[in-house]
Amino acid sequence: MITLKKEMNRIIRDYKIKDALVQIKTKVLSSEEAIGNPEHNDYPIQKGRERLMQADFNGAHGVAFTDMFGNYEGSFYEIMNMELNNNFRWAIFISTINAVLKSLGLIDKTDHCRDCGPVECRKKIVQFIKNEFKNPKIFQAGLQPRFVEALNEEFEIRVTDRDKDNIGKKINSIIVEPPENTEKNIEWCNLIFVTGSTFVNETYKQFIVKDKPTVFYGVTCAGAVYLLNLKRYCPEGL
């Protein structure tokens, strides 16, 4: 499998990013800074267990959802060569590549949608799925409540989440399952729909399956899906 670091180093060479000592600053965004004031209050970031870390590079923003968060400042060189041994370091790396690729004009929608954005995103998801995949059985990895509500109205769907407080929760007729059910749900479905946060907790590889389409959703995965030539859903990102 192509690695993110290998592809990012190719970008550095191709676009002649010579100043490897340029400083990168990351900071943790509050819930209001990240998504404004949406009409629902059940999004993961509002519970406080996950936060958005934002990287700034030459005036461009990149963000990453993570359950290990904190502020960081270091050189681009240091980040590209840091050992990615926990979710905090992965969040620094992912938010940085999002900011760099945004600054180069290679990706867009790297800031989270705000206020009514999540509901507008929900309104578009069914048509997106029908246009791209007709009438699939969907396995959604990562609970985004608005997506489950919309998809459950039109498709067969199963959902897993890593948050213990979400497991067993009922949304419409769907019961949120534990992550241990991932493998059997991948076998069951014919479309895998996955939170971009899997690039921070490094579980994304298990969702890239031969001969089965995968769509990653959200702002976290903006740079990663570009580098790995994957499909993304994020119509309301900024």
Account of the protein in words:
This protein has 238 residues and is an alpha/beta fold. The protein has two domains: 4-103, no CATH class; 117-233, Rossmann fold, CATH 3.40.50.11590. It is 34% helix and 21% strand. The protein has a five-stranded parallel beta sheet with strand order 6-5-9-10-11, with helices on both faces. Strands 3-2-1-4 form a four-stranded antiparallel beta sheet. The chain is globular.
Features:
five-stranded parallel beta sheet; alpha/beta; 11 strands; Rossmann fold; single chain; four-stranded antiparallel beta sheet; globular; 9 helices
Quick structural summary:
This protein is an alpha/beta fold and 238 residues long.
Low-confidence stretches: none
Structural class: alpha/beta
| Count of distinct structural domains | 2
Order of helices and strands: HEHHEEEHHHEHEEEHEEHE
User: What is the distance, rounded to the nearest whole angstrom, between the alpha carbons of the first and last residues?
Assistant: 30 Å
Mean pLDDT: 89
CATH architecture of the largest domain: 3-Layer(aba) Sandwich
Widest β-sheet, arrangement of strands: 6-5-9-10-11
Residues in helices, as a percent range: 25-40%
The CATH top-level class label of the largest domain = Alpha Beta
The fold-level CATH name of the largest domain is Rossmann fold
Quantity of strands, as a count: 11
Gyration radius (Cα, Å) is 17 Å
